[in-house]
Amino acid sequence: MDCNGAGQPLLSGAADPTHQTKNAYAPKGRRFRRCKSAPLADFVAPDMNGNEKLPRSGSIFGKHHPNFTRVAVYLSVYLGMGTLCFYMVKTQINGKKTNGILDALYFCIVTMTTVGYGDLVPDSTLSKLLACAFVFAGMSLGGLILSKGADYLVEKQEILLVKALHRNQKVGPTDILKEIETNKVWYKCLLVSILLLVHFLVGTLFLIFVEGLSLVDAFYCVCSTITTLGYGDQSFKSTAGRIFAVFWIPTSTINLAQLFLYIAELNTETRQRALVHWVLTRKMTHVDLEAADIDDDGVVDASEFIIYKLKEMGKISQEDINEVMEEFEELDVDQSGTLSASDIILAQNSQTKR
Amino acid sequence: MDCNGAGQPLLSGAADPTHQTKNAYAPKGRRFRRCKSAPLADFVAPDMNGNEKLPRSGSIFGKHHPNFTRVAVYLSVYLGMGTLCFYMVKTQINGKKTNGILDALYFCIVTMTTVGYGDLVPDSTLSKLLACAFVFAGMSLGGLILSKGADYLVEKQEILLVKALHRNQKVGPTDILKEIETNKVWYKCLLVSILLLVHFLVGTLFLIFVEGLSLVDAFYCVCSTITTLGYGDQSFKSTAGRIFAVFWIPTSTINLAQLFLYIAELNTETRQRALVHWVLTRKMTHVDLEAADIDDDGVVDASEFIIYKLKEMGKISQEDINEVMEEFEELDVDQSGTLSASDIILAQNSQTKR
């Protein structure tokens, strides 16, 4: 298990300069500085949990993220093998031909993205089965790009967008990071919408001026391609068109898929925020108080309150709590209901004996 | 805000007969019966958080879920409007025609799912723009079906699958629910894979015996359709074929998309479980003990331990905690560091005065 990086999250968190920005979210520190003493504010298991956000420090500065490198390698292998295979069966593919290698690559891209114009179609058992294999592999790869690679690129560009938007105001890098943290998904939506608009414009203009389509046909071909519909009555027929398509089709289709993903994320986040607001502002009753009192001492302390409210928000479940409680009982060797230094030593000794 | 249903989760949870099964997950109750007293074990905000699992009681028994009804209504409106629009411009659509209404519905389905064979293609500005509009609306609808409707149907069928698999063993409904709860995503993958196999078989056999394709062509057409590739060299050309396609295309394409989603979910869950295991089994050190001690009393009680570990698992963040702490400080009017009945009364009075 490769979670060595998670072994010292407290120390690494403290050494991280971007960590400072977190303070902006700390409560208006009255008495409860104590809650800041809890560690792991930025805990992210590096390769363990694919759904975790990247730690800020890793995603903005420094080298490429390992996930991203992996996606790039898979994509290169896929396109390399695809082009080679389809080039070797090029006589078994019918349709409008230009350059042999280019057509094979173009066919590979059109298949991978499931656009499937049909301007080139496999015409033998072998080429048909190859196309079947490459479309399934292409869909998996598309999913991988969406989940591991594309989001990473958007997060990198997000910084530039927010900086550009706040160009006229005096803001430091800390404020930029804070602004992104607060409205992350919204900025992603905005960025991806702008990119999609650029894809639309560039694609339409290219089809008008290079492929010689009318405005309506160009727009229709762009829509048909970006959505992976690909009726095939309009497609990229010239050499220049296919060179353009090889770059434009994958980026534009991924772009639209991302927009849909981010809109869904924004939607979920908005509802989640409304729920959090509702949970936090509703009146506590005596029933709540009694229910929140985990150790039955008649009062609810800060930790009990936090667990109660987070559970109500749906962020943690009873099963999560039960799992941790089992571990707590193991560690609490003297059965005092609290863990102290002596418990730790006793527990370690008993583990060593086992 | 429609969170009225969340107002009495404690009571509704207690009145729920399926709730009994939760006890199976409670810790091997030694001293800590106390943690069971915490409420909201099944708290789910019904319409607030789309990502939440449905409460078991709602998803298995009883009426259809509101999300599902909404998806069904949207789909009917989309197909109704689509068929009407494309029927009205039927003279502006070129290609192999059968029955007017059927062709319009078939074209609508082929567009909505982004299969886009191209056996029927729009041939006027109006029909092209209509196709553009319907493909974008169709993609959004597809996303909605995937996120709100399809999962609900799979969860309903999951019960039947698990019952069938355990037919020969003596198991009660409680055991079935427990088994599903533990291996939920795995059963979903299995179920959707079986359904996909059925779609493959039925589609291939239909194309061989009704459309008269060869085995390879039929398989190739099924692959090309299910993945929404749709080159269009093979498609449904007869009246019977198009009637079949109208039902088979949407269900099979959604089916494959679901399989990809569940595989991703399974992947994430496996890594999440590995992380939970690692967090729970790693040795507590004195540094951990100090860090977990939120109220600085030198010992770590159960609630502090739970918060510390859940944070380490990445299930809750410092921001979540800070938000709740702010509310706690508001409520803790006498600044005792604990909430008691008197705090609640004081807080309510001060809120009334405001």
From TrEMBL, chains A, B:
<comment type="similarity">
    <text>Belongs to the two pore domain potassium channel (TC 1.A.1.7) family.</text>
</comment>
<keyword id="KW-0813">Transport</keyword>
<dbReference type="InterPro" id="IPR013099">
    <property type="entry name" value="K_chnl_dom"/>
</dbReference>
<feature type="transmembrane region" description="Helical">
    <location>
        <begin position="101"/>
        <end position="120"/>
    </location>
</feature>
<dbReference type="InterPro" id="IPR011992">
    <property type="entry name" value="EF-hand-dom_pair"/>
</dbReference>
<feature type="transmembrane region" description="Helical">
    <location>
        <begin position="243"/>
        <end position="264"/>
    </location>
</feature>
<keyword id="KW-0812">Transmembrane</keyword>
<feature type="transmembrane region" description="Helical">
    <location>
        <begin position="71"/>
        <end position="89"/>
    </location>
</feature>
<keyword id="KW-0106">Calcium</keyword>
<dbReference type="InterPro" id="IPR002048">
    <property type="entry name" value="EF_hand_dom"/>
</dbReference>
<keyword id="KW-0407">Ion channel</keyword>
<dbReference type="InterPro" id="IPR018247">
    <property type="entry name" value="EF_Hand_1_Ca_BS"/>
</dbReference>
<feature type="domain" description="EF-hand">
    <location>
        <begin position="319"/>
        <end position="354"/>
    </location>
</feature>
<keyword id="KW-1133">Transmembrane helix</keyword>
<feature type="transmembrane region" description="Helical">
    <location>
        <begin position="126"/>
        <end position="146"/>
    </location>
</feature>
<feature type="transmembrane region" description="Helical">
    <location>
        <begin position="185"/>
        <end position="210"/>
    </location>
</feature>
<keyword id="KW-0472">Membrane</keyword>
<dbReference type="Pfam" id="PF07885">
    <property type="entry name" value="Ion_trans_2"/>
</dbReference>
<protein>
    <recommendedName>
        <fullName>EF-hand domain-containing protein</fullName>
    </recommendedName>
</protein>
<dbReference type="InterPro" id="IPR003280">
    <property type="entry name" value="2pore_dom_K_chnl"/>
</dbReference>
<keyword id="KW-0406">Ion transport</keyword>
<feature type="region of interest" description="Disordered">
    <location>
        <begin position="1"/>
        <end position="23"/>
    </location>
</feature>
